Amino acid sequence: MRTLPRRRVLTWTTQAAVVAGAMALGLPAAAPGDPLTNGTAAGAARRHVRDVLPTVSADAIALTIDDGPDPLWTPQVLDLLRRNRTRATFSLIGRQAKAYPALVKRITAEGHSICNHSMTHPRPFGARSTAAIQQQIEDAQEAIINAGGVAPRLFRAPGGDWRAGVLGAAASLGLVPLGWDVDPRDWSRPGSDTVTNRLLTAQPGDILLCHDGGGDRAQTLESLRNVLPALSHRGLQFVPL
Ligand SMILES: [Zn+2]
């Protein structure tokens, strides 16, 4: 299983758990008025575009693409995004970034943003020690920067595992935890029509989750060919986070 149902994620991101995790690490709780926590439980994973970019248009949505860069699928996704004049956010695995630096450079050069998605994508991520979690995040940060990417300010936990220790580790490294609103479960290859229909449920302000790594992503590509123009025609504006 690559991602977890939203309900599980929400259970794990209770403010109490987050604050307890932050306190255990000697971190201050998020200050009231911090734009990054506006409308969101302190320290919880951000699930809406305006939780990350408070000043963007209410019609903004964000496409996040996880588990790359991948030598077969990432170039095709980048070509499709360019054809649709769409900028996205790539959640990169550090090990992949280290192996394919030219793709990291291309992602950056074409105006997309980059999110840290751990060094090797181990799961269950939150079951590891705090030191191991921090090491995973730090190693990925270094790998992405060394590959020519801009230093990420966002972190997405493998499998969306937002246990308090994960949120605390991200906070201690100054990274914003990035969640999502719409999960089409494209990684499970349910058919491109199903992926398309799930992505078309997107509402203004939503963060969408797709994958360009970790397996055959032909269904994801086929779906995005339809979804990108369809959502744009509804007046939604894709923004990189
Ligand atoms: Zn992932």
Short description:
The chain is of the alpha/beta class and 241 residues long.
Write structural notes for this entry.
- There is one protein chain.
- By secondary structure, this protein is of the alpha/beta class.
- The protein has one domain (6-238): TIM Barrel, CATH 3.20.20.
- The chain is 40% helix and 12% strand.
- The protein has ten helices and seven strands.
- The chain has helices spanning 6-12, 15-24, 49-52, 73-83, 94-99, 101-109, 130-146, 164-172, 192-199, 218-233, and strands spanning 60-68, 89-92, 113-116, 154-155, 176-177, 207-211, 237-238.
- Strands 1, 2, 3, 6 and 7 form a five-stranded parallel sheet that branches. It has a two-stranded parallel ribbon with strand order 4-5.
- Helix 8 links the parallel strand 4 (154-155) and strand 5.
- Helix 4 runs parallel beside helix 10.
- The protein starts with 5 loop residues before the first helix and ends with a strand.
- Bound molecules: zinc ion (ZN).
- The site of zinc ion has 6 residues, from strand 1.
